[in-house]
Write a structure and sequence with these properties.
The protein starts with a strand and ends with a helix. Strands 1-2-3 form a 3-stranded antiparallel β-sheet. It has 98 residues and is an alpha+beta fold. The chain has a single domain (3-97), classed as 2-Layer Sandwich (Beta-Lactamase), CATH 3.30.450. The chain contains 4 helices and 3 strands.
């Protein structure tokens, strides 16, 4: 069940730099929290906490199930709905790269 935290290319580079210079414990805490999560709410809270800790206001966590995309996100609902209805994940460079 592939899953990703969606970041732009610039955000991804910034995240890697931050992780290298001292966010290892925060990233590990995120991985640990997701690993023990028992439901979608726990995954959402862990992801939101991690995104906030590294300076992001919004996040999207995607999971593919065949051709269906399931998401946990904090983006405005109209945008999240548009993204899924128009299947933007097919052309989203962040998703493609992941």
């Amino acid at each position: 069940m592939p899953s990703i935290l969606m970041l732009t290319a610039c955000q991804s580079v910034a995240l890697r730099q931050k992780v290298r210079v001292g966010l290892n414990s925060e990233f590990q805490a995120f991985l640990d929290a997701v690993d023990v999560a028992q439901d979608e709410r726990m995954v959402s809270q862990a992801t939101k906490s991690f995104a906030t800790s590294i300076g992001y206001e919004s996040f999207a966590y995607l999971r593919t199930e065949g051709f269906d995309i399931k998401t946990i996100n904090t983006y405005p609902q109209p945008w999240a709905t548009t993204y899924l209805q128009h299947r933007f994940s097919i052309i989203d460079p962040v998703v493609i790269e992941a």
